[in-house]
Amino acid sequence: MENTNFKNRRYTTLSKLKDGVAIIPAAGYKTRSNDTEFTFRQNSNFKYLTGCNEPDAILVLTPHLEKKDHLFVRPNDRLMEIWSGRRLGPEKSKEVFDMDECYSIDDFQKVLPELLKGHREVFLDLFNETELLMKVRKICMDLDPRGRLKTPTPKAFRHVSSLIEQQRLIKDQNEILKMKKAAHATNRAHRAAMAKAKVGANEAEIFNLMEYVFRQNGAHSSAYESIVAGGVNGTILHYVQNNMQLADGDMLLIDAGSEFDTYASDVTRTFPINGKYTGIQKEVYEIVLEAMKNSFSKCSPGHTLEEVHMESVKSLSQGLRDLKIFKQSIDEIVEKNLYKEFYPHGTSHWLGMDVHDQNPYMDDDFRPITFKEGMLFTVEPGLYFQPDNLDIPSELRGMAVRIEDDILITESSHENLTAMIPKEVKEVEKACEENYEQFL
Ligand code: GLY
Ligand code: MN
Ligand code: MN
After folding, report:
1. Whose CA is nearest to atom 4 of ligand 1?
2. Which atom of ligand 1 is nearest to the CA of 349?
3. Domain spans of the chain?
4. How far apart, in Å, are the Cα atoms of 24 and each of 38, 93, 132, 146, 289?
5. 173-439: which CATH topology?
6. Ligand 1 in reach of 355 Cβ (< 6 A)
7. pLDDT digit string (tens) for 125-160?
8. pTM as predicted
9. Confidence class for position 162, pLDDT limits 50, 70, 90
10. Active-site option among 32, 159, 356, 367
11. Which secondary structure element, helix H or strand E, spans residue 307, and what is its range?
12. Helix (H) or strand (E) holding 430
């Protein structure tokens, strides 16, 4: 059951708007090809403030009016509902979403002018909602073209998202619960993949199995296109082709996480396709695992994502020295960015409704955000040895290892939400021996 108090969330946003009206649209259907659409995914900010899953709705927040939250939704339409599914309609929506007022979306142009009066600004997603921006701009222009009204009308537009994204940075108990449910389904799917993968199987089989296990465990979808990358494919960071045969002696890098009620998990594991790491695979794997553990040491209140990243960078640089790829000192490898050939991405990103959650990385003074209880992010060090790099030992060429977990900052430390997914060498090899049917 949904316990979230969306009204309170809207009040928090309202308290930050001062003289401005916020206009936050739902997502619409996106065309995939003629007459067919992509699976609908609600706009995260809209969902965060309403709990509403309907497309083509608009939330308007008006701090200076007596009625403060207004929702425009698609009207009831028997024929359309037979074709595309039931609609709540304005009357029921008012009650279900606890709005001060609800209207048909068809009345948006007619009603909005009244909601704008008395406010000096409009907060809107200026970067992604250009069509709506143009429409609202025109309404503002027509509202008081000769400057004769005795009440303010909006004369400035500001970007709304940063307000809400700051609010979304700290996750509440309901959000954490959903992320734990996403993590649970992800755990089952990664274990199933370890059990199922074998020499000669296809990446697509593992991909499909994971999608199935996500949904079997209550997740609504995957949070992003899964990466199921056998052998050298793991050296392509965003490999999503997922249709190659798995070869003996290779590892399989899987970056896949489920989404539960618009909350993401994001997990990577790299395991041997035949069930046993080779000597050199184990060596590289242990370097990445140690980098991850060193990064965990900075996952507590007061630290920053930059510090988490630097722990992995230093640790991986040491590992690259141990592998005899570099002779230089750790400081030189780090300062001259030499490690970037083998570790080209960051260690962390915020995680929440969006897999790369739209939360600020810098505070108002452009200093890195310091961790507080309720913040959630990934830790995902990796090492990638490109197949065409002739400066490294041949046994490393084409090898890729990434390990990724989801970390919640707690009052004095952190909780690893995905710690139950095997990642120690022995645990992983054991998980590879299991029968995958237990996960179906
Ligand atoms: N799965 C996307 C990422 O790890 O950032
Ligand atoms: Mn990630
Ligand atoms: Mn990932």
Report:
1. 266
2. 5
3. 2-167, 173-439
4. 21, 16, 10, 28, 42
5. Creatine Amidinohydrolase (3.90.230)
6. yes
7. 999 999 999 999 999 999 988 888 999 999 999 999
8. 0.96
9. confident
10. 356
11. helix 305-322
12. helix 425-433
